[in-house]
Amino acid sequence: MATPAEVLDIEGREVRISSPDKPYFAGLGVNKLGVVDYFRSVGPGIVAALKDRPTAMERWPGGVREDVVVATRADGRGEAFYQKRAPANTPDWVQTADVRFPSGRTATEVAPADLPSV
Fold first, then answer.
1. Cβ neighbour number for residue 25 with a 10 Å cutoff
2. What angle do CA 41, 47, 53 make, to 5 degrees?
């Protein structure tokens, strides 16, 4: 059974963490909440690196493992993938940026302005 979501206060923002006990780096014993704790511990550095820059997410829904295949545009198959577009349920307070790709297509991407956005 899935663990209920947790709501954390990060710099005054409520951030909902779904499935906090979900294994992310099973070989290291690190779960989703552990990854969130890591990002909080390196907050100033990660925000400085990402601030106001359109950011794609590398998603690993089944956790990070050596046997996982990352999907590419060429075949579209794989257990992990890149998500360029901001999710539909992105909170209003998360800064975004409209990006135009060489193909002429566009996307609205997350452009983190603060730690809760990361």
1. 15
2. 150
What is residue 103's DSSP assignment?
Answer: T
Q: Which helix (H) or strand (E) holds 34?
A: helix 32-41
Contact 111, 97 (CB under 8 A): yes
Cα distance between residue 86 and residue 18, in whole Å = 17
The CA-atom distances, in angstroms, between 56 and each of 1, 87, 91, 109 are: 30, 11, 17, 7
Angle at CA of residue 20, ends 16 and 22, nearest 5°: 140
Residue 5's identity, in one-letter code, is: A
Query: Which of 14, 95, 13 lies closest to 55 in space, CA to CA?
Result: 95
Whole-model pTM over 0.70: yes
pLDDT digits (tens, 9 = 90+) for 54-112: 998 888 777 777 777 777 766 667 778 888 899 999 999 999 999 999 999 999 999 99
Q: How many CB atoms lie within 10 A of CB 104?
A: 6
